[in-house]
Every structure is written in C-alpha cells, then in structure tokens.
Design brief:
By secondary structure, the protein is an alpha+beta fold. The protein has two domains: about 170 residues, no CATH class; about 140 residues, Histidine kinase-like ATPase, C-terminal domain (Heat Shock Protein 90, 2-Layer Sandwich), CATH 3.30.565.10. It is about 65% helix and about 10% strand. Helix 6 runs antiparallel to helix 7 and helix 7 packs antiparallel against helix 8. The longest helix has about 90 residues.
C-alpha cells in the first residue's frame, strides 16, 4: 500500500497538493476557533480565516517556489499571532508544510537561514502579543518544536534522495565498468588466442615448408635421405594438428568437459622436440644451458617455449644462414633466453627490428609475465632475440610479499 501511495504521489503531484491544501484549510478553519485564554473571541473570524486560507493556497507553489511559500505562510502565521490567536499545529500547518518543502528541495544553508528566521519571527511575535502573560511557555516552546519538526524531516528526505541518487549512480557506474571490463577481457582473450594460433601455425608451416623443399632437393641427390625427411615432415604436420586442436579448444565452452583437451601446455621440456624439428628442416640448432635449471611456473614455461618457437621459426623462414644458437641462463629468480644466428653485418647497425605479428606476440608474452624482450640485428652480424623472464609470474611474486 505504501508503494502504491508513493507511486501515485510521484505521478500526480499537483493532485496531491490540492488534496493537502483542502485538508489544511479545514484545519485552519478549526484553528481560528481557538484563541488565547484571557482574550475575548473576535465576533468576526474572517480576519483570521483570510490569512490562514492564503497560507494554504500558497502551499500549491511550495514545490516550485519553496522560498516564496515560506515567506507567505510565515506572514500568514504572523498575522494570526498579532490578532491574538494561539499558534497551534492547526494554524502552523501551512508554514510547517512550506518549511518541509524548503528543507527537502534546497540546500542546507538556505534551510538554516529561512528556518531560523521563521522560528525567531513567529516565536518573538507570540511573546510580544501575549497580553495575558501566563501562557508564554506554551506560545514559545510549542511553535518552536512544531516548526523545527518539518525542517528535520525535509532535511532527512533530501539526504535520503541524495543517497539514493548516489547509489543509483554507483550502480550505473559499476554496470558500465563491468561492461567495459567484459569488453577488455574479450579483446584480451581474442589477442591471446590469435597469438597462440600464430605461433602454432607459423612455426609448423615454416618447418613443413623447409622440410618439403629439402625433400624436393633430396629427391634428386639423395633418395635415401628423402625418406627420413618425409617421415619428419609427417611428424611436423601431426604435431601442428595436435597443437592446433589444443589451441582451438580454448574457444569451447568451459562447461563442456567432454570436448576440452587434456593435453598439457608445451614448455621447455619439449625443447629437444623443437630442436629436432628445426634440424629436420635443415637448420643446425645448438642449445647451451648455464646455471642450475630451476622449475618454472606453467605460464612462464609456456612463455619461454613460445618465444623460443617463434625465434627458431624466424630463423627457419628468414635467416641467411643454416645455424642458430640457443642459450638458457638461470640466475637467481630469472631466466635469460638468447637466440642468435650468424650472418652478414647489416649496413645499418640499428634498423627497425620489424613489426611482424610474431615479434609483437613475443614481446606481449614477455611483458605479460613481468619480463622483457629485445630483438634486432647484431652489430657483429646476424639477428638476436633476447628475453629475460622471471621464474614466477609477476602477480605471484607480488602476492608472496
């Protein structure tokens, strides 16, 4: 029922104001029948009913002009006090209503100024125009309390409205933030999947292309070796299909366990397999390890493997030489990875290292775990990929502190 009343009030404010005005006019008519003890009742009540009626009518403008309504209703109550009427709640009701709307619709400073002025004026007039002198307490404490009540109630209504508005604003902001965060997560996931697909497809296709070219050459010069190369080519394509299936599995629903891949993510444990694939494509890859190998977190292990995979893929596709050196340095809490190949000294020692998706993907992977990546030609010739990765991702390191 309360909810229905509030809805009706919000939808029909003017109708509610008219109903309140009529009710207050009835209260005013009753209030003018009361007079201060010791003073004869006026024969004609019109002088008292007129300001009371004007005060009630002024409440119709209280929503749009609360200050004006307070001034008019205060003047009406002051006139009644001067005529000798006791300022009961019946006669103060229009002023109380105007003070409520003033406190509910204006700021605190305006409420204090108009409220204090109204209370002081009406209480002061009640004392001045009290010829009997035996009801001073009744004519001061009563009006003071009755006029203070709507100021408190209106202020509480204003605070509640401001609180609800702030809650709604926070809810809207939170909704917008959630939507933005969801879009960012979708974009990040899209980039991650694209990076995985690039690494898998580019690496294995480059190896398969090199192996096919070698097999074509061997078909004329060494048929016996061609058979081994074709076998390696079959293994390369099978590995590509297996990793591609695992990567595409990332797109499946999380609540579809039957279709999820159970293959573990690749890591440095598969480095010998990666080196063998490159050697089968005609590339001589040398791996050296310095320091005591330390266990890596799964995400760093995958990052290291993908960086090595992309670096060796670039050697297979672009390098002018057939050899590459891989160096793994374990020191403290970091792993340094260096992939180099020898070649002619570049004419420009500091050219742009390139903007291919492979280089971008390596850099994004290194930064995602709190590491760093440098790529580019070497002054002494050839090309170098150097990555420095923490043994544990940055988020875990910060959580342990």
């Amino acid at each position: 029922m309360t909810t229905s009343l509030e809805r009706y009030t919000d939808r029909h404010p003017h109708a509610v104001d008219v109903i309140v005005m009529l009710a207050l006019m009835g209260c005013a008519a009753l209030g003018v029948s009361l007079i201060t003890p010791g003073i004869d009742r006026p024969d004609n009540t019109l002088p008292g009913e007129l300001p009371a009626g004007i005060s009630c009518i002024a409440l119709l403008a209280a929503r749009s002009h609360p200050r004006t309504a307070v001034v008019v209703t205060t003047a009406g109550a002051a006139s009644l006090s001067i005529l000798g009427y006791l300022l009961t709640p019946l006669l103060l009701a229009p002023t109380m209503g105007a003070l409520y709307w003033l406190a509910a619709l204006t700021d605190s400073k305006t409420t204090r100024v108009y409220g204090v002025t109204t209370i002081v004026a009406l209480v002061g007039l009640a004392v001045i125009y009290d010829p009997s002198g035996d009801v001073v307490l009744l004519k001061t404490v009563g009006p003071f309390c009755w006029l203070l009540l709507p100021l408190v109630g209106g202020s509480q209504a204003r605070f509640r409205r401001a609180y609800l508005a702030s809650v709604q604003a926070r809810a809207e902001h939170a909704e917008q933030t959630r939507e933005e965060e969801a879009r960012l997560r979708v974009a990040e996931e899209r980039i991650r999947i694209a990076r995985e697909l690039h690494d898998v497809v580019a690496h294995h296709l480059a190896l398969a292309n090199a192996q096919a070219a070698t097999a074509s050459y061997m078909a004329r010069t060494g048929p016996e070796q061609m058979q081994k190369i074709l076998t390696d080519l079959n293994g390369t394509t099978a590995s590509a299909l297996r990793e591609l299936k695992t990567t595409v599995g990332l797109l499946r629903q999380a609540d579809d366990p039957e279709q999820q891949s159970l293959d573990p993510a690749p890591g440095l444990a598969r480095l010998p397999e990666l080196v063998s694939a490159c050697q089968a494509a005609g590339r001589d890859v040398t791996v050296t390890t310095h320091g005591k190998p330390q266990p890596l977190s799964p995400v760093v292990d995958l990052t290291a493997y993908r960086i090595l995979q992309e670096a060796l893929t670039n050697v297979t596709k672009h390098a002018a030489v057939q050899a590459a050196d891989v160096r793994l340095d374990y020191s403290g809490t970091r792993l340094a990875i260096t992939v180099t190949n020898n070649g002619p000294v570049p004419a420009d020692p500091d050219p742009d290292p390139g903007r291919g998706f492979g280089l971008i993907g390596m850099r994004e992977r290194a930064h995602s775990v709190g590491g760093d990546l440098r790529v580019g030609p070497r002054r002494e010739g050839g090309f170098e990929v150097a990555a420095a990765l923490p043994l544990q991702p940055r988020a875990l390191q910060e959580g342990d502190q």
